[in-house]
C-alpha cells in the first residue's frame, strides 16, 4: 500500500510540475502587456469570462500604440493586422490551413511579379567558393527589387557547397521563366489527385544553403536558398529525406509530401 501511495504521489508531482511549466495567466487581468494579453486570448478556453474584459482592452491598447508610434515603427503593421483580426474573431490565432493560404497568396504575388519583370527578382552574383556574394534586395509586396551593388553574405556557406550553390543559382532567363510558370501552375492547382505539388523553403539563417530532397529510387531534388530569403520547387508527391547544412549545422528530417509544404530553417543572429 505504501509503495502504491508513493507511486501515485510521484505521478501527481510530475503532473503538477508539467503544469507549472505552462503559461501562468493567474494575474492576466492586471497585465498591461499587449503581447501577454494577446497570447492569453489565443490560449484561453472560448468560454473563459475574462475574454469579454481583455479583448476590448487589448484592442484599445493596440489603437493607442498605433496612434503614438514613431514614424517607421515596424510593429505598427503587426498591430494593425491584429486589430483587423480581433474585429472579426475571438483572437489572433489562425489555423494551419489559414496560414498555408496566406503563404500561398504571397508566393503567387511573388512569382507573378517575377514573370512581369521578365527576370529573377533576386539578382545573384556568383563568386569564388570562399566568398559567396548576394546582391542586396529590397522587399516589396511579396517580392524583391534588384540592387546593382553586390555585398558579401553575413556568413558564407561551407566551401564544399559554394561552387554547387553558385551553379544552382545561375539560371538563364528561359530556365527561370519555365520554373516560375511551373510553380505558379502548382500554386493555382487545387486538384487533390495531382501528382506534383510545391515545396517552399524559407531560410532564416545568415548563411546560404542547399536543401536536398531524396525520394524513392533516383528521385532527388536540390534547392538553393539564399540567406534571409526563400525559394520554391515543384516535386513529385511522396516520402522524402530533407537534408541541409545550415551555417555548419547538419539538418535532416523525413517528410511525407502530399500537399503544398513550407519549411523554415535556421534563425538569424540579427536582433
Coarse structural class: alpha+beta
Q: Write the element-wise H/E pattern from the N-terminal end onward.
A: HHHHHEEEHHEEEEEEE
End-to-end gap: 56 Å
Strand fraction equals: 25-35%
What is the highest CATH level, the class of the largest domain?
Mainly Beta
Residues in helices, as a percent range: 40-55%
Uncertain regions spanning at least 5 consecutive residues: 2-21, 127-158
Query: What radius of gyration results from the CA coordinates?
Result: 23 Å
Strand elements, count: 10
Major beta sheet, specifics? 4 strands, antiparallel
Output mean pLDDT: 75
Tell me what the CATH architecture of the largest domain is. Sandwich
Superfamily at the CATH H level of the largest domain?
Immunoglobulins
Task: Count every helix, treating DSSP H or I runs of 4 or more residues as helices.
Answer: 7
Largest sheet: spatial strand order: 6-5-8-9
CATH fold name of the largest domain, please? Immunoglobulin-like
